[in-house]
Amino acid sequence: MPAAVAREQGFYAAFGERNQDVGSISAPVFDHTGRLACAVGLGFPTQRIGPGDVARLASVVARAGQEASYALGYERQGDWPKMP
Predict the structure, then answer these.
(1) Which end of the chain is more exposed for a tag (fewer CB within 10 A), N or C?
(2) Which residues, in sequence order, are bridge partners of residue 13?
(3) Largest Cα–Cα distance of the chain, in whole Å?
């Protein structure tokens, strides 16, 4: 389940799930109540970015989701999000 994976690792990476030539890395953004408010993400052509690039890019996307969550009043709970 992508939502559970995103919550656990702080991001979710997808390659060709909806369109064979498109990939994305996204991170959840939580509001002050801890509920999902939205997501931030990076979309790209799979000809330029592949699974080997996830570690490098996911930390940037996960951090953006974390910062946006804090801006909405989210208070860190436990170890979430784990940064890659």
Answers:
(1) N
(2) 25
(3) 39
